[in-house]
């Protein structure tokens, strides 16, 4: 996922990760198996987007039963309401070490065996919703 960062950004990310054994960095393209392996091994997937309207990475993490940490906005609050506040953790303002510590503690405290509620994203429901939107957009009715 993603593209290669320039050398300065690569260095900044590696410095920020430091020698913390809990943090991994993969600063190159990853194939599907690598993404699943990395996300599946995570206790918490941190996606510090500055602006977010939708995130395939967040949905991927949730589909692998991994909680995500996202900046608070209307979209992320709606996602948390949909799938569960234990799964979509949000923070206002900037991402700080304290935000990360608090989110990691919340992620670790999840009930074992629990899963995010992704039922509203099942194919039959998604297909119907898309058909309705397309019909409305084209002036048709359902």
Describe the protein's architecture and organization:
- This is Glycosyl transferase family 28 C-terminal domain-containing protein.
- It comes from Angustibacter aerolatus.
- 12% of the residues are buried.
- The chain is mainly alpha-helical and 142 residues long.
- The model has no long low-confidence stretch (mean pLDDT 87).
- Strand 1 (45-46), helix 3 and strand 2 form a beta-alpha-beta unit.
- The chain has two domains: 1-30, no CATH class; 32-117, no CATH class.
- The protein contains six helices and three strands; from the N terminus they run H-H-E-H-E-H-E-H-H.
- A three-stranded parallel beta sheet has the order 1-2-3, sandwiched between helices.
Core attributes:
mainly alpha, Glycosyl transferase family 28 C-terminal domain-containing protein, 3 strands, 142 residues, 7% strand
Give a short summary of the structure.
This protein is mostly helical and 142 residues long. The protein has six helices and three strands, in the order ααβαβαβαα. A three-stranded parallel sheet has the order 1-2-3, with helices on both faces.
Beta-strand percent range: 5-15%
- Structural class estimated from helices and strands: mainly alpha
Strand order of the largest sheet: 1-2-3
- How many structural domains? 2
Please give the number of β-strands: 3
Q: Based on CA inertia axes, which overall geometry fits?
A: globular
Protein name: Glycosyl transferase family 28 C-terminal domain-containing protein
Organism: Angustibacter aerolatus
